[in-house]
Design a protein that fits this description.
heterodimer, A: two-stranded antiparallel ribbon, two-stranded antiparallel sheet, 16 helices, 3% strand, B: 297 residues
């Protein structure tokens, strides 16, 4: 399968993303902003969970740190909340750096624990950070949160003012439009960087640790160091995602970054396919947009009731839908949407293959995440497949 | 002094309830290697079944039905979902359980709505007083029931063929299988046991002094995760120790919140278990009583 069709598809997608804001309404623009912010967080998490095999339930905690660092460093000090009044660009960089540093500070834990054990430790982080957000109210505004300064570079503010009127092809570019283009650039850079990290030396070391720590150590990879490094990278991504969420919301509160948000990030990367950058973006699109869109169009959908009436309201429906989606993907789609797409492409590329159900040839598609175990799908029903002996081996 | 004693007793009795939940986590983990994030929802399911059924069939029959129902749900999750994972490993299994949790919890939340259902427990909101120290009757019953439950578990695991088989399967699945132990059966037993424990814990987590059956119970059952981790991932006695420690910690921190407020901020009682968990994981990654994995790199 040549690279050309993929490049063309990517170019078309990019063009669509560039033109879309010119025709979309504010609701769809806002949805798009949330999707792009969450996508960056999901890309960071897929490096940690998918590539390096370390479960994290604390992603929302790092997003919270990024969001609040941005809000605090760019905000002006008022009577209720503190603020450093830095330029927004510095605030954004600071948000990423501080999140990465907090991730590094957690690395004594992150470097020693593996797999689901790390997941449990990071579960604690969400609660600790939430506690801090509520109690350090001089900086965070406590329960009610604080408002967020719009992003700006010299000469251009990403809000409705300064310049007051900016238009392309007769469409006025308001704050939402400007943020859309900013976020698009950030998403592209983040995905490009993540893709390079994954296929490069670092990413191969991470994947090696996922498959076997002992083997990785034998090949000369510093296991604790590599695990700490992937944790730091994913924290930085989460911090950026948090700052972008803060910009998209315009106001942040501790409830935005609850355990549910952490789980949402996990759901995105599982649906998209663990370890796949494009999959993470698609997962973010599905998980973020579905509840918003269902809520917006609930009156038009006959099976949905209005919230509070006891029937199936939009947020309930979308939660059940993606709960079921996770279960379905994990049971039937090995490798999530990205894995399924890869299999489809291979089948299309090979034409009528003599053994379509056979294991994929190793190295058939270098950009693909290596399937963890290319075994026959028929042996998964065997109870021994989930016994602890097996589990210890795979978490190792 | 009596205030201190009251807080300690409160903490220990609450800790015993937590250890019931934690034991459920430990049993499921040892028998199938699954980190059961849906356990909180099963706890809520048990309490919900009792709350819905007790007006018609009475409290004790309702409790029996709830135990059977929770056990059945656990077994169903294992046979229908966990065993059919496309890519079975602890990570995907944990995420699968998150998915199950979302579905189960959302549906229960929708059914419960904004109401707080009453449990109809015979001990109601009464209080037992000995000298100056008083404790909710529900907590006293909980402590007694938990002790009995763990005695039964001990008997099961050390004196019956089924229990010994479960331990063998946990220690070395393939070998146990070759020795004629049916892993499907031990796994199903583990999930059923966890379900029963969850339903029992659900009763005590929702009766006085808790307001009643509300969706937040599933979240408070998550507080048993630190207890489980503290005790050791594969240890049922560890779950008791962990539960007691966590119960004690959160009761004391909550009880003396006014004194600690300046240092730790409000609401630290809810966070304390997780702080303790992170510290323990840092010092002893396999918990207090858990078996160490012999891996050195």
């Amino acid at each position: 399968m040549s690279e050309l069709p993929r490049r063309i598809a990517g170019l078309v997608l990019l063009l669509v993303a560039l033109v879309l804001p010119l025709v979309l309404s504010d609701f769809w623009l806002q949805t798009g902003l949330f999707v792009m912010a969450m996508a960056i967080g999901a890309v960071g998490l897929t490096l940690l969970v998918g590539v390096a095999g370390q479960l994290s339930l604390g992603h929302a905690a790092f997003a919270a740190i990024g969001a609040y660092v941005y809000a605090w460093s760019t905000g002006e000090a008022t009577t209720t909340v503190d603020g450093a009044g830095l330029p927004p660009m510095a605030g954004l960089v600071l948000a990423v750096v501080v999140s990465a540093l907090v991730g590094a500070a957690f690395s004594p834990v992150a470097g020693r624990l593996r797999g689901i054990y790390l997941g449990l430790a990071t579960l604690g982080l969400v609660f600790v950070v939430r506690h801090l957000l509520v109690n350090l109210d001089d900086w965070t505004g406590g329960f009610t949160g604080r408002s967020v300064e719009p992003f700006a570079v010299p000469g251009l503010s990403f809000s409705n003012r300064d310049p007051d009127y900016l238009a392309v092809a007769g469409v006025e570019l308001e704050g939402l439009h400007r943020l859309w283009y900013l976020f698009l650039v950030l998403v592209l850079v983040a995905c490009w960087l993540a893709g390079n990290l994954r296929t490069g030396r670092t990413g191969r070391a991470w994947a090696n640790i996922r498959d076997s720590e002992t083997a990785a150590a034998a090949m000369g990879i510093g296991v604790a160091r590599a695990k700490a490094s992937v944790f730091v990278v994913s924290s930085a991504y989460a911090g950026l995602a948090g700052a972008m969420l803060a910009l998209a919301y315009g106001r942040i509160a501790p409830d935005v970054f609850s355990l549910t948000t952490s789980i949402d990030f996990l759901v995105m990367i599982v649906l998209g396919g663990l370890g796949s950058v494009a999959g993470a973006v698609v997962g973010a699109l599905f998980v973020t947009a579905l509840p918003l869109v269902l809520a917006q169009y609930s009156s038009a959908l006959p099976f949905l009731a209005s919230p509070g009436s006891g029937g199936l309201d939009p947020s309930t429906a979308s939660r059940i839908a993606y709960g079921l989606a996770i279960i379905a993907v994990l049971l039937f789609l090995r490798g999530g949407l990205a894995g399924a797409a890869g299999r489809l492409r291979r089948r299309a590329g090979r034409g009528p293959s003599p053994s379509p159900a056979g294991p994929p040839p190793p190295g058939a598609a270098p950009a693909e995440p290596a399937p963890a175990t290319p075994g026959s799908p028929h042996d998964v029903g065997h109870p021994a497949a989930v016994t602890p002996a097996r589990s210890k081996e795979t978490t190792r | 002094m009596s205030y201190f004693l009251e807080q300690v007793l409160n903490g220990l009795s609450y800790g015993l309830v937590l250890s019931l939940v934690a034991a459920g986590f430990a049993i499921v983990f040892t028998s199938t290697g699954v980190l059961n994030f849906a356990h909180g929802s099963v706890v809520l399911l048990g309490a919900y079944l009792v709350a819905v059924l007790h007006p018609t069939i009475g409290f004790w029959p309702a409790l029996l039905v709830a135990m059977a129902g929770a056990a059945l749900v656990g077994v169903a999750i294992n046979t229908l979902l966990v065993r059919h994972l496309a890519d079975p490993n602890p990570g995907t299994a944990a995420i699968l359980m998150l998915g199950v949790d979302i579905v189960l919890l959302t549906e229960l939340t929708r059914r419960i709505g904004n109401q707080v259902l009453t449990l109809g427990a015979p001990w109601g909101a009464s209080v037992v007083s000995v000298g100056e120290v008083s404790l909710p009757t529900g907590r006293v019953v909980a402590a007694a029931v938990t002790v009995v439950a763990f005695a039964v578990l001990w008997y099961l695991f050390s004196r019956t063929d089924l229990g010994v088989g479960m331990r063998a399967a946990a220690a070395d699945g393939p070998t146990a299988s070759l020795m004629g132990i049916r892993l499907t059966r031990t796994a199903a037993t583990g999930w059923a046991l966890a379900g029963v424990l969850a339903a029992v814990a659900g009763i005590f987590l929702t009766s006085f002094p808790a307001p009643g059956v509300a969706p937040t119970v599933a979240l408070s059952a998550l507080a048993a995760i630190p207890a489980w981790v503290l005790g050791g991932f594969d240890s049922v006695p560890g779950a008791i120790v962990g539960g007691l420690l966590i119960g004690l910690t959160s009761a004391l921190v909550t009880g003396y919140e006014s004194d600690l407020h300046g240092v730790l901020g409000t609401g630290f009682g809810e966070v304390a278990p997780y702080v303790v968990m992170i510290i323990v994981l840092l010092v002893r990654p396999s918990g207090l009583l858990g078996s160490k994995e012999a891996v050195r790199v």
